[in-house]
Amino acid sequence: MEALKKRILAEGQNLGKGILKVDSFINHQIDTHLMYEVGQALARRFSDVGATKVVTAEISGIAPALATAYALNVPIVYARKTRPITMTGPVFVEVAPSHTKGRDVFLMISAEFLRPEDRVLIVDDFLASGATLMALVRLVEHAGAALVGIGAAIEKRCEGGREALAALDVPIVSLAVITDMSDGQIVLS
Amino acid sequence: MEALKKRILAEGQNLGKGILKVDSFINHQIDTHLMYEVGQALARRFSDVGATKVVTAEISGIAPALATAYALNVPIVYARKTRPITMTGPVFVEVAPSHTKGRDVFLMISAEFLRPEDRVLIVDDFLASGATLMALVRLVEHAGAALVGIGAAIEKRCEGGREALAALDVPIVSLAVITDMSDGQIVLS
């Protein structure tokens, strides 16, 4: 997706240790029309998988998941990392190691919103190591729902997430692929 | 907004102590088309205030803020409650007491994304006591930006937020107003 790639090159900051700062248009501040286009682009790539729901993880997955689900005309469910007092019924719980938080995080989805008959497209802002995405996949499996695809706005190819997810045998789509962040660079494929 | 009111009456759950559960369409699971309509409706009400940015608080403010900002063709900035490692520069910080968390939460916005020339519309999912909204207002004031309005999807009138915010002398708009939650009821105006 050219508009996203251009924006990464113009405003993305390589903070070292594989950390890409995209706070001016993806996280913290969001370019709403770019995000809408991200959603449209992911929805086009998954138009034929019959998704009934888009699942993501709070916080930064919400915007791309919402935009994609809007284009696909399905609801989203975002996994919570802390239990709000409104989460009263049974939940599916998984644990994911968080690269950016330096500790494990819980991911919880109420059982009422993830059902065996659901066909789930997982969407997140980043595909990096794949650890968060794999935790979301396990939540889908706990529910007995069908996983039909995984989409991300930005992929950091060097972190191996695509390989980690390959055995799932579902389409994996990212809209901008970063192949090299060594020496302060941001190299897109 | 009739569609939102109907949905609250059909699926909202009064959990007692003023807690309204709307996890099936606003929080946790989001009806993406209803959320789009929420954004359109708020944008119509604020079409003449010249907003250059929509500000909200993570997590549940992101969706209504994104939908509103998309309709107004401006970016959003969501205040972070914990500092991600990508938040490297100076930040504006405020503290808000959280009703649903039972403790104070920090709200942080990078100084680079809130500027004196900004005209800010604040949007959140709920207008209840107004405590979170007031903390966002103080962040806007710290930046020297102009506050041009406050919008919420759902207002719990009985919690006094509208009165707490009245002195700001900006338009305050909510799309569904709950006037009574006593005795397990959900009464809309």
Q: What would the principal axes of the Cα set say about the shape of chain A?
A: globular
CATH level-two architecture of chain A: 3-Layer(aba) Sandwich
> What is the count of structural domains of chain A?
1
Q: What Rg of chain A, in angstroms, do the CA atoms define?
A: 16 Å
Intertermini distance of chain A: 11 Å
The arrangement of helices and strands of chain A along the chain is HEEEHEHEEEEHEHEE
Question: What quaternary form is this?
Answer: homodimer
Q: What are the segments of chain A in which pLDDT stays under 50 over at least 5 consecutive residues?
A: none
Count of runs of 4 or more consecutive helical residues of chain A: 5
The biggest sheet of chain A amounts to: 6 strands, mixed
Structural class of chain A: alpha/beta
Largest interface: A-B, 41 and 41 residues
Walk across the major sheet of chain A and give the strand order: 5-4-8-9-10-11
Q: What is the residue-averaged pLDDT of chain A?
A: 96
Number of strands of chain A: 11
Portion of residues in beta strands of chain A equals 25-35%
Can you walk through the features of this model?
Two copies of one chain form a homodimer. Chain A is α/β, with parallel strands linked by helices and 189 residues long. Chain A has a single domain (2-188), classed as Rossmann fold (3-Layer(aba) Sandwich), CATH 3.40.50.2020. Helices cover 29% and strands 33% of the residues of chain A. Chain A has five helices and eleven strands; from the N terminus they run H-E-E-E-H-E-H-E-E-E-E-H-E-H-E-E. The first copy, chain A, has a six-stranded mixed sheet, sandwiched between helices. Chain A has a two-stranded antiparallel ribbon with strand order 1-2. In chain A, a hairpin with a 4-residue loop joins strand 6 and strand 7. The radius of gyration of chain A is 16 Å and the shape is globular. Chain A starts with a helix and ends with a strand. In chain A, 48% of the residues are buried. Chains A and B meet through strand 3, helix 2, helix 3 and strand 5 of A and strand 3, helix 2, helix 3 and strand 5 of B.
